[in-house]
Design goal:
- This protein has 227 residues and is an alpha+beta fold.
- It has 8 helices and 9 strands.
- A hairpin with a 2-residue loop joins strand 4 and strand 5.
Length: 227
């Protein structure tokens, strides 16, 4: 007979720990498809800023090593002020808490393709290194993380012009193993598809492996694709 089964055998995973324990539940797997799903999560957050009228341009930059990637938008910038209930920066809450974000009510976003906060925290949990810079209210702010754990508080970098959010991340080889490199062809194909789906969206891809820059922009969207 097996050992007794009682309350002491129940494991409670808190915070983002369940993501690292069972990544497939959140991104479908740890293969090439799952790896690129991290990109789509952050990209969809940026696209939501565009389709809601707060941003006009998104830049995706792939490292020469293909092991790191940055996504930058010129949207409103993730809020950095302290949350009234949790007494932490909203940025830290969004990046480290599942089911936290601005898309669960009806006031922040009219249209949404991603779930801002759910995707960001999952990407953070599965990255050995992630850093996010935010420009808003005339200043630039930054916080860095390792395996989803903040390496310090949100800090002000100084004055800044404009607004927006920039997320750089390197997926964790402990999670993804040898499938750690992003595929430029997969990235370009998806960026082009996103540009068709959201007419007027401007997506710039900077390929660090070749030094080339590609602009994906289809003013008429799906209508252009169907011609």
């Amino acid at each position: 007979m097996g050992k007794t089964y009682d309350a002491s055998d129940i494991l409670v995973l808190e915070g983002i720990e369940p993501v690292r324990r069972r990544p497939a539940m959140y991104i479908g797997g740890t293969d090439k498809t799952g790896l690129h799903h991290l990109v789509w999560e952050i990209l969809d957050n940026a696209i939501d800023e565009v389709i809601n009228g707060y941003a006009t341009h998104i830049i995706v930059e792939l490292d020469k090593s293909r092991e790191g990637l940055r996504i930058t938008d010129n949207g409103r910038g993730i809020p950095v002020d302290k949350h009234p209930k949790h007494k932490k920066s909203a940025l830290e809450i969004i990046m480290t808490t599942l089911h936290a974000g601005g898309k669960f009510d009806t006031g922040s976003y009219i249209h949404s393709g991603g779930l801002h906060g759910v995707g960001a925290s999952v990407v953070n949990a599965l990255s050995r290194h992630l850093e996010v810079q935010v420009k808003r209210d005339g200043k630039e702010w930054e916080q860095t993380y390792q395996a989803g754990i903040p390496q310090g508080p949100v800090k002000a970098l100084g004055n800044a012009r404009g607004t927006g959010t920039s997320v750089y991340f390197r997926p964790d080889p402990k999670i993804f193993g040898k499938t750690i490199q992003f595929d430029p062809a997969v990235l370009q194909e998806t960026l082009d598809a996103k540009a068709y789906l959201h007419k007027g969206l401007k997506l710039t891809f900077k390929d660090g492996t070749t030094g080339e820059t590609h602009l994906f922009h289809h003013e008429q969207g799906i209508q252009e694709y169907l011609r």
